[in-house]
Recover the amino acids of this structure.
C-alpha cells in the first residue's frame, strides 16, 4: 500500500517529470529492476566492437578511396556509411566508461556524443535508402542518367548529412549531464515540465522522417528491383546484389528492435499506452538490450564486405600488392587483375 509520501512522489513523477529515467523511488513508486547485463560484460562488448569497427571501417574507406577510376555511385554511399560508423565507433570508449562509472564527462561531451550516435543512425538509413533508389533506377528503369552525375551524388550525400544533423539536433539541444539523488550521473534529455508534449514531438517526428519513410522507400524500391531481377531470370546479377541486401538486412536487424522499443517507450510516457511498473521495467531492460544491438552494427558492414563481397577482397589484395606486401604473382594466380567495376559491391552495368 502507498502512504502519503508515495502518492506525492507519484504525482511529482507524473506531472513534473524532468525527462530523467525514473531512477529510484524519488522519481517513481515502482521498484525498478533494469539490470539485464553485467556492466563489465557490456564494457567488454563495446571494446570488441570498437576495435573491429575501427579496423574494418578504416579498411573499407581505404579500399574505396583507392579505386578512383572504377568507383561506383553505390561505393560513394558506402564510403559515407563507413565514415558514419567510424565516427560513432570513436565514441564507444566513452559509452563503455559511462556504463561502468555513470556519466562523468559533463554536459558538452554528453551533447556531442549523443549527437554522433543519432547522426550515425539517421545517416545510415538515409544512405541505404539512396542506394535502393540507385539500384532501382539502374535495374528497373535501366538508366544511368542519375548515377553518371557524380557531382549530384556528392550533393545528395551532403544533403543526407545535413538532414541527419537536423533530425539529431534535439538530442544536442536538450541532453545534459544530470546527477539524480542516490544514483550515478546520467546523460539524458532535460525537457522541463512539458515532458510529455516535447517527448512526443522530439521522438515521433524524427522517427517518421528519419526511419519510417526511408524504410518504406527501401521496401518499395527493393521490392520492384527483386521483381525485375527474378522476372528477367538475371541470376548472375541477382548474386551481385547480395552484399547490398545483406547490408540492409543487418541494419534492420540491429536498429529496428531499438526503434520499436523506443516507440513503445514514447507511447507509454505520453500515456497512449497505460504505464505499469512491470511494463516500465520490461521496456527499460529492452532499451538497454536493443541499444547494445544497435551499437554492434557499427562493426558489421566491413565483415559483410569481407565475407560476401569478392570485389572488396580483391581491392584489398591489390592495395597490399601495390605496397609490396604480397607479390603480383599471387594476384595473377588468383586472377585478380583489376576491379570488375565497383570496389565493393554491385557492377554499375546492372
Amino acid at each position: 500500500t502507498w502512504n502519503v509520501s508515495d502518492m506525492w512522489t507519484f504525482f511529482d513523477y507524473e506531472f513534473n517529470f524532468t525527462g530523467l529515467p525514473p531512477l529510484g523511488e524519488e522519481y517513481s513508486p515502482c521498484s525498478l529492476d533494469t539490470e539485464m547485463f553485467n556492466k563489465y560484460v557490456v564494457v567488454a562488448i563495446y571494446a570488441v566492437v570498437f576495435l573491429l569497427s575501427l579496423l574494418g571501417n578504416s579498411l573499407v574507406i581505404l579500399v574505396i578511396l583507392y579505386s578512383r577510376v572504377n568507383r561506383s555511385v553505390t561505393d560513394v554511399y558506402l564510403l559515407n556509411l563507413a565514415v558514419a560508423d567510424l565516427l560513432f565507433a570513436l565514441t564507444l570508449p566513452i559509452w563503455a566508461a559511462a556504463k561502468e562509472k555513470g556519466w562523468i564527462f559533463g554536459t558538452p561531451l554528453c551533447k556531442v556524443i549523443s549527437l554522433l550516435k543519432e547522426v550515425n543512425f539517421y545517416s545510415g538509413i538515409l544512405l541505404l535508402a539512396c542506394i535502393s533508389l540507385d539500384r532501382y533506377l539502374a535495374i528497373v528503369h535501366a538508366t544511368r542518367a542519375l548515377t553518371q552525375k557524380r557531382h549530384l551524388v556528392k550533393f545528395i550525400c551532403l544533403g543526407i548529412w545535413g538532414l541527419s544533423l537536423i533530425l539529431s539536433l534535439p538530442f544536442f539541444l536538450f541532453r545534459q549531464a544530470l546527477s539524480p539523488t542516490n544514483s550515478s550521473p546520467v546523460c539524458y534529455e532535460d525537457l522541463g515540465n512539458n515532458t510529455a508534449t516535447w517527448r512526443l514531438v522530439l521522438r515521433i517526428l524524427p522517427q517518421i522522417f528519419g526511419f519510417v519513410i526511408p524504410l518504406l522507400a527501401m521496401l518499395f524500391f527493393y521490392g520492384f528491383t527483386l521483381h525485375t531481377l527474378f522476372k528477367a531470370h538475371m541470376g548472375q546479377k541477382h548474386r551481385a546484389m547480395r552484399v547490398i541486401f545483406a547490408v540492409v538486412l543487418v541494419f534492420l536487424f540491429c536498429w529496428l528492435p531499438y526503434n520499436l522499443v523506443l516507440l513503445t517507450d514514447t507511447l507509454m510516457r505520453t500515456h497512449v499506452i497505460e504505464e505499469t511498473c512491470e511494463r516500465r521495467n520490461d521496456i527499460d531492460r529492452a532499451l538497454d538490450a536493443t541499444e547494445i544491438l544497435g551499437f554492434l552494427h557499427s562493426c558489421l558492414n566491413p565483415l559483410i564486405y569481407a565475407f560476401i563481397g569478392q570485389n572488396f577482397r580483391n581491392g584489398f589484395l591489390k592495395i597490399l600488392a601495390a605496397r609490396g606486401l604480397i607479390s603480383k604473382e599471387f594476384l595473377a594466380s588468383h586472377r585478380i587483375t583489376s576491379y570488375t567495376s565497383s570496389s565493393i559491391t554491385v557492377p554499375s552495368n546492372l
Remarks:
- The radius of gyration is 23 Å.
- Strands lie at 175-178, 186-189.
